[in-house]
Amino acid sequence: MLKFADLIDENIEELAALDAIDGGKLYKMAKLADIPGAAETIRYFAGAADKIHGATLKMSRALQGYTLREPIGVVGHIIPWNFPSQMFVMKVGPALAAGCTMVVKPAEQTPLSALYYAHLAKLAGIPDGVLNVVTGYGHAAGAAISSHMDIDMVSFTGSTEVGRLVMQAAAQSNLKPVSLELGGKSPFIVFDDVDVDKVADLALQATLYNKAEGIYDKFLTKLVEKAKAWVVGDPFDPNVHQGPQVNKKQYERILSFIELGKKEGATLLTGGKPCDRKKGYYIEPTIFTDVDDDMTIAKEEIFGPVMSVMKFKTVEEVIKRANASKYGLATGIMTNNLNIANTVSRSIRAGVIWINCYFAFDRDLPYGGYKMSGFGRDLGMESLSKYLQVKSIATPIYDSPWL
């Protein structure tokens, strides 16, 4: 695994280029963060491989008891297109450390880097048959993995709708356990004690915004100003902030949500249409205001550069509104008040809470959702557990002076 990580570092430019070509990821960000982070994730789990231990049990009668943590077996990984490199290693890393073999199905939109990672794994000496990549569409390859009688567990990241199908197939086949990281509609909550200029930069990286009423107008002005300066274009251009959408289907889906927002009565402040004079699936950064909680753009995951700005008055109100979502993946909280940060972070039902930061991923920080955002965790030592079985062993103790 350490050799595998070294080879990833040695092939940063190739892997970054593949993710840019395949999915429109920014080449400079993939080269600076995504691919080096992938190598470090593999190293992290390499370090965990010899730290998987059972426990010695204090039994209630004359028995010696202990547990073993054994590999669950053959794992099926089904990963999405939004973070092809990170998703690959956050699934493969702990499964390898746990001693599992696996079949990885990358998204049909972004298969190239997964195939290259498999090539590097072979060069690193990972035995044939341990790490396998099978490309294909979800309804064929993904369905085959989910229903296969010889696959012992499935780890899936994707939409809530497909997550249901994975669970159904797992239940109807061999009752294999599943781990699901599904859709989200993550609130980004800004209180009125923050530096508006600094938080606006963070806000552009998130997707749904709730703003305290006291700074609403000032924040909105700053946000629109920065959105209009946001550079959309070729993902290989180092000056670009946002590349194209992954394919025509996603491009058209985002534009349909924008039209729904206008139709349902939200006010379009900026953006809202394809970028002028750009060949490809480029969409302007889009900001809506006057958004009600029951509007489609406020409830559904858009997965594109569309933001909804909404007011709130009290801490209690914003907690209630955040928890009204059917999802519970992540939440951002922007405040300098420690009491508010503690209260809101403990009250919101979401798997990850980012305080005064956003997209603060780390290989040691478990990531996953509540409610319809799924269950199970990727990353961190917590992620190893889903790839391990617990075996309990008991033997009699005869004539021992102590138990």
From TrEMBL:
The keyword rRNA-binding does not apply. It comes from the Eukaryota. The keyword Lipoprotein does not apply. Residues 1-393 form the Aldehyde dehydrogenase domain. Keywords: NAD, Oxidoreductase. Gene3D superfamilies: Aldehyde Dehydrogenase, Chain A, domain 1 (3.40.605.10), Aldehyde Dehydrogenase, Chain A, domain 2 (3.40.309.10). GO terms for molecular function: oxidoreductase activity, acting on the aldehyde or oxo group of donors, NAD or NADP as acceptor. Pfam families: Aldedh. The active site is at 181. InterPro entries: Ald_DH/histidinol_DH (IPR016161), Ald_DH_C (IPR016163), Ald_DH_CS_GLU (IPR029510), Ald_DH_N (IPR016162), Aldehyde_DH_dom (IPR015590). Belongs to the aldehyde dehydrogenase family. This is Aldehyde dehydrogenase domain-containing protein. It comes from Buddleja alternifolia.
